[in-house]
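Sanity check

After download, print the first record. It should look like this:
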Amino acid sequence: MKKLLVSLICVFLICGFVFAGGSGEQKSASAGEIKYKDSVVCADGSQITTGDPQAINNLQHNRLFKCSHNTLVSYNTAEAKYEPELATSWEWSPDLLTLTLKLRDDVTFQNGEKFTAKDVEYSYKRIMEMNSTASSKFVGVLDHVEVVDDYTVKLVLVKPNVDWLDTLALPLASIVNQKAIEADELKGPWIGTGMWIITDLEEGDFVHMVKNDNYWGEKTETRELTLRYISESSARLIALQNGEVDVCIGPASTEKSYVLEDPNLELIEIPSATCCYFAFNTSKGPGSDENLRLALAHCINYDDVILGASSGEGTRAITNWGPITYGYYDGFGDYTYDLELAKQYLAKSAYKTLTISVKDSARLRAAQIIQANAKEIGLTINIEELEAAALTAKSAFKTAEHESMIYTLGWNSYGDDASRAYGKGSNTNKATLSDDRVMELLELGRSCTDDTQRKQYYAEIQTLNHEHAWYLPLFYTELSVAINKGVSGVIWEGHQSHDYSRIEVSL
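Expected structure tokens:
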């Protein structure tokens, strides 16, 4: 089978046939009588736990919310531009403090309620009142929302934020319906304006959706869509080979040959914007000791980690920053592999043991290699394996109890995406970092319109991280997706927030 290489910028494949037929039946198009699957299943190794877009911000949930909900604007990665979604147009005030948006007047929620500017006001107020990963993107940034009329809204910022449109394009900024949530606090947030209606969500198992026939935009002819959790990569691939699923996220590197040899399957490889990194809890315990952090930084054999964790298919990361993210800088160079220097740092540390928390087999292998490396300098590493939800809870910013962890972050293209990893209060800040200078630099970066100066701010953040070793960047992953050869209509993203909303599968 020919191997399909997809560039770092996404490719949107659109299948333009018109179908007929009901749920549970195969549908055929008049043009060429091509048949399509009525029900499509996408398998992932990460669990979905909620249908509330404002409650969580990670890759697998982003894929769900791109199907079930809409944002005011979207970002077209292939063309590197913002596009209308629920908003038709927008305009900044001269001082960059007020963004005025005109809204669509032909959109209804999945419960039949009309979409208006009041829904924007309610949604964003709700985000700011929630203690969630979405909150940190709005609190301290958005001052208030002004409803001008039913289809005009003003977003007034606390300070200028040149990346604010990027925030509005994130799934966490999806618009929800007040009436639905007031009627049902659990399932009310499931109601959006998107193409897919969530009908069943078994936490940590699957999400089932049916097509919204009243969707305001371009529709797919697929009638049912299921996002399914299968923890082991080999089991996901077997399910794909058996026809149980149509998309297999992350087949094991050692099993890619099975995909390439199967005439019914296709292998998509996407240069990834995801960084695998080692994070210390800098707020307390061993991770708060800079000497220990630098000792580990200089004793890790990073090439061995890449080989063990990703079968050598990762690319060494010098900085804990996205390779396509605005402001990327690695001018300080790599940590040297120097056991004597590492021993000198460890001798100055009050700690001689450290626990690493991990959630899957690849990160476990990385932790085991680091454990062996650390032993050579007299540092004892203990490894704690946790389920994804447990690790997320244990590493939440305000209540963080982990000592260190190996994790991944799919970076977006805009500079202020760094606020997720470095911002105080962000649950994606796995280093629990609250450094005053970094917080100042983040603020300067998001409000600066001078390109050269703004890049200098972000370069300083990365340089400070290298000096203090809050995060140890390990490698950028190489993303692989195995699919049924008939799959089309998906936007494959380098940051892995793929858009399945218009997926179709020919037979």
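If your output differs, re-run the checksum step. Summary of this record's structure: Residues 274-477 form a domain with the Dipeptide-binding Protein; domain 3 fold (CATH 3.10.105.10).
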